[in-house]
Amino acid sequence: MAKTRLEGGNDGGAIRVGATVRRAVNTWTPAVHELLRHLEGKGFAGAPRVLGFDDEGREILTYLEGETMGNRLVWPGWTRTEDTLRQVARWLLAYHAAVSDFVPPRDAAWRGGGRWAPGLIIAHNDASPFNAAWHEGRLAGFFDWDFAGPITVESDVAWTALSWVPLHSRRVAATEGFTDFDARPRRLRLFLDAYGWHGDPGAIIKEVQARMSARADDIRRGAARGDQLYAKLMQRGFAADMDRAVQELNDFADARKD
Predict the structure, then answer these.
(1) Which residues sit opposite 195 in a β-bridge?
(2) Among 112, 116, 76, which residue's Cα sits nearest to residue 99?
């Protein structure tokens, strides 16, 4: 059976074998598998299925059919349409419904740390265009659940909006091909409306800022302790870009105004 190394990802190492994906096992893999099995039991179609392990000890997941970002620097057009923005919001709403009653094992270890408690959900935490599969004009779902972990629903809504509105720094967004910055307040409202969020959009902006600041700190700490992924992210300026985005969002137009 043909084997293909899949493009993209900062960790690398994912291999496609037929209709499956093989990936190295990590300390968080058992917890992620519990989550994915729960989603399968709920009939949630927007995530891979767990198929076990191969002879090399790698996890086996189903392959989500569709176009992906791969190694492209400029994002494809489908990532920026309003229809896609609505589809992502509806995927997130359906995911939250499916995961709402998931109680992870007490000893579950998540890559980002933290412990689940009542009132939290286990989120993908990286449901960005980099991990999306786009098939025949529809969002097939998200792969690469390595960063799954416990957060609030509000935080998950905010973190997903960050990637898709987008709410990152102008420098990063422009590099990725988005320059219509005046449209961002309207796009944020569209995303929140499609999700059914009835809270204050300003709270979403504040949550984005809080999470980006925390993420930048995580990258710096991880790089300092020798984590190869975080060292790579640090070298590529991810932490500095997040700091810049936090500052820029202080001047973000009020999302409640036209």
Answers:
(1) none
(2) 116
**Angle (deg, nearest 10), helices 201-224 and 228-235:** 110
Enumerate residues 6+ apart whose C-beta is below 8 A from 73.
175, 176
Give the separation between CA 10 and CA 8, rounded to whole angstroms: 7
Which pLDDT value is given to residue 8?
Answer: 57
Separate counts of helices (H) and strands (E) for the chain: 8, 9
Q: What is the mean pLDDT of residues 67-72?
A: 88
Q: How far apart are the C-alpha atoms of 227 and 232, rounded to whole Å?
A: 9
Give just the sign of the alpha carbon dihedral 223, 226, 229, 231: positive
The domain made up of 77-249 has a fold known as Transferase(Phosphotransferase); domain 1 (1.10.510)
Q: Show me where the domains of the chain are located.
A: 3-62, 77-249
* pLDDT for res 256: 43
**Average of per-residue pLDDT across 237-249:** 95
The number of CA neighbours under 13 Å toward the Cβ of 125 is 21
pLDDT single digits (tens) 189-213: 999 999 999 888 999 999 999 999 9
Which stretches of the chain are assigned E, i.e. beta strand?
3-5, 15-17, 20-23, 50-53, 59-62, 121-123, 132-135, 138-142, 149-151
Q: Which two tokens stand for residue 231?
A: 């060292």
Question: What average pLDDT does the segment 133-146 reach?
Answer: 96
